[in-house]
Hints:
Oligomer: single chain
Bound molecules: 2-acetamido-2-deoxy-beta-D-glucopyranose
Number of domains: 2
Structural class: alpha/beta
Amino acid sequence: MPVQRTLLGQPLALRMPPRRFQLLFVFVLLFTASLYAFGTPSPDSLPTYEQVKDAVKDPHLPDLSDLKDHIPKLPTELPSLPVPDVFKPPAHTPPEQANSTAYSSYGVIKWYNDFKWKNPFSRKITLDENRAVLPPLTQRTPIYAYYEPKPKQKKEVTEAENRLILAWRKAWWAQGFQPVVLSHKEAAKNPQYELIQRMKLDPTVELEIERWCAWGHMGGGILANYLALPMAQYDNAMISFLRRKEYPKLSRVESLQNGIFFGEGAAVDEALQQAVNHELLRDTTTNKDKIAKLAVKEGGIVVNLQPAGITVDKKANGIAYYNKEVINKYKTVSEKLDNNTHVTTHVEGLNLLAELINSHLHLTFQEIYSDGVAIVKPLPEHTTALTYGAIDIGRNLTQCPSTPMPKSCPPNRQNCKPCDPNKPLPFKLTPAYKNTSSLYSIGAVPHPYTLTSLYYMREDVTAEFLRKDAQRNLWLTALTKDVLGPNHGDLYRVLYFKEEVAALRKPSHSLWLTAERTTQTDLEWIFGFNLPKSASHNSEPSSPSKDSELIIFPRPKEPSPIEGVEVQEERWIRAEDERMKIARETLTKANKAKEEDPIRQKVKGVEDWNMADSEVWRFARAFSARRRVERELWEEHEKKYSGSEARAGVRAGGKWWGNRK
Ligand SMILES: *[C@@H]1O[C@H](CO)[C@@H](O)[C@H](O)[C@H]1NC(C)=O
Ligand SMILES: *[C@@H]1O[C@H](CO)[C@@H](O)[C@H](O)[C@H]1NC(C)=O
Ligand SMILES: *[C@@H]1O[C@H](CO)[C@@H](O)[C@H](O)[C@H]1NC(C)=O
Ligand SMILES: CC(=O)N[C@H]1CO[C@H](CO)[C@@H](O)[C@@H]1O
């Protein structure tokens, strides 16, 4: 039976011209389309007569049957390939959006947030090759905590408490929330506040009611204690529910006391009103004992003054709450914390609590990624110099968390598996990206100039060399060869990669660094905890100093080489480092040079030759720059409030528009 040819699902009635003419036709079509999409190519990137001849003879270009096979195969979550729209009028440059620029030594990083981000090539939309289209920024769900230092409290204590709040803010930020710390200033704006002040309540009872006042003033949402932190995977049912911003009923969570509440503003106001009007509060002196009893009952005073109580959520397991009773089970910490006579010992207790919480967050990460951490190293024979930063992060991620109590588990997962330095989390190099939710991948995305220089072992990459010898888009092809197989085109790979980087509304299992960057910031806001910054000097756990209660663990070894890949000799690695340095310099110079400068033309030639690799580099770079800017703007906004880096005595965040490497 003759095969019925179809194009985009329509049967094709016309007789196909001979194959060589089909190819020529496709070639001309694609060439016209790219002229339109990417502007007139520079003479260097124009294909030569030989290339056209070769393409027709021995095509790497898609032929018609490729098109036919590929378009319907795209899964639904990816958009269909853009059919060249040669006849549409050109668009205008989209307007500049607020806070959409950052600076690096490799040039201004610009982006444009738009729903059209799944177009494989940003330049088609922004008409600016340096401006990447990113998915619209997801609105973070606010989560509130209330903090007010005790009257006449020592500065050291407040600072240590601020460090705990900072840990709280990082953990919720990493889970996609916007953590906001409230104080009596917000509480005082609530119309009920005056009345409560006049009631002569016991300070802890008053504090709890003021929390509700502040929450009511913010219009409801989520109210958490700053010792209630998320310790579960991103798509945990409870955490996903909270992220959705829809709270049909005012609720608390079973066994979490007053650790977390959620509800609409009207319900919060109503509950507060009920509590304040309760007859027990008419005469607080006579009813002192009764009030005190209600205050310690599960849910706290406001909940227990409701005639009908509030809804109790029973299924929640994603949140760890370190209230007094819970901390008492962590003896090493509570012994110091409970010391009321020596401030320094109490502060030490607070610091140990922060370490304990940090270790539990880190442990949760290690449990979620039970298959460990993979450093993705495409083209491994030539890319060692790209992986140093990623390996540094990977080693610290797989190291056992520094903690005062190595055998302890988070309060919400009593039968966890504590980290055992003798059975470390797997840590390996992989030549290609793997799509597994139990494996965390870290990759460094190189600029095509850097990659070409390393792969072909050349200090200088000329247009002539590209035309004669260089393959296109080597990095992306190698990266996606396992997940996507060999049969997909570059456009498809670009889209797949962008989805992995942006991970919209799904948990991200990977981190993509810009290979040329020499420093990494913000990791603790991405992971939600601090990576261990020090390690044991030998293979045994130890303490950083004689009287420290903290236990630190040995640092995991460098990952072993990929099987079947020849181990590079030291001198070749050194040569690679040198080339990497030159590539960095070239990129910096090109960035500063004028449009027509030869060095700029050279880099542009490599970019045009490797459009897919350039596109993913710009996308990953803009994505992480935007993540940093979003974070730093928020820190700038919050710096006056409790729990900010400034208040916690942690390194000052610095202005985000400052020059960054
Ligand atoms: C508080 O700490 C100091 C110094 O560490 C110690 O001497 C004292 O016994 C502690 N007090 C209590 C009640 O534990
Ligand atoms: C990646 O894994 C997820 C979940 O296992 C699956 O739904 C998805 O189809 C996979 N993607 C590819 C490209 O294999
Ligand atoms: C990893 O830990 C080492 C010390 O063990 C430290 O020097 C380095 O800065 C850490 N790196 C990161 C990214 O945390
Ligand atoms: C530093 C900076 O440019 N910040 C701007 C971020 O966007 C907001 C809203 O448009 C501006 O008000 C800030 O000036």
